[in-house]
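Archive maintenance. Older records in this collection stored only the sequence; we are now back-filling the structure field for every entry so that each record is complete. The fields below show one back-filled record exactly as it appears after the update. Entries are processed alphabetically, and 1-acyl-sn-glycerol-3-phosphate acyltransferase is next in the queue.

ARCHIVE ENTRY
Title: 1-acyl-sn-glycerol-3-phosphate acyltransferase
Organism field: Microbacterium saccharophilum
Length field: 259
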Amino acid sequence: MTAQEEPVPDVASADENEVAGVGLTYYVIRWLIAPLARLIYRPRIEGRKNMPRKGPVILASNHLSFIDSFVIPMFAPRPVYFLAKSSYFEGKGIAGWFSRQFFTAIGATPVTRGAGQAALDALDQQRRILESGRAIALYPEGTRSLDGRLYKGRTGVAFLALQTGAQVVPVGLVGTSDAMPVGAKWPKMRPQVIIRYGEPLDLAHHGPASSGRARRLATDEIMAAIHALSGQELAHAYNEAPAQTPVERLRQVLPHERR
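Back-filled structure field:
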């Protein structure tokens, strides 16, 4: 199935579930941890003025390290929401309570990862956050880059932007893979982190969200902007786990739209 023929998911109406805002814990952690993080990593933030202070915004970033999801909301000039694995919110005892409080405080909302209905539920959560006038952070590549290259973007970010009218601010992260390499259990001390905000992108000229061509062209524009900010080598491929079965290998080869 080509990108033009890819069906658009039927997501629920915006008033089904009210989106909760960040609470006091968010600001407490931001005031306590952010200064410490600034002291350790000496972040250089470029293009801060490009971040709209109001209205729905999608921060579309490259993804190099586990700590990317902490760096973005910690240093953003406004609260930023992102989806996190539901297991972070389901722990028992003191450790489980701390995990829930911490991830809630930095703007994370739980989601069950996977395909099918789980993917639609995640898309719907993101749409509702945007329609409430908030900002979210997403990784168009879908998952972390293990080799440091920038992979092709999946079209879910463009779909949300075209459907909701949200502006997309491209983000280029540099140095987070040095601060916490893939496989490391704890962040390293002192490597400098650079956060680059690009100019907001209005993708409406590509067409409606229902158009596969519009979603693909909008995604390519987003990825080109991220590449200009991050300076990574381009992979010219999707960031996919190696196929384990003949069916998976066939699906990766056939033309289809990656959400």
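Update note: The helical segments are 24-41, 68-75, 93-105, 117-131, 156-164, 176-179, 212-230, 246-253. Residues 212-230 form the longest helix (19 residues).
Entry marked complete.
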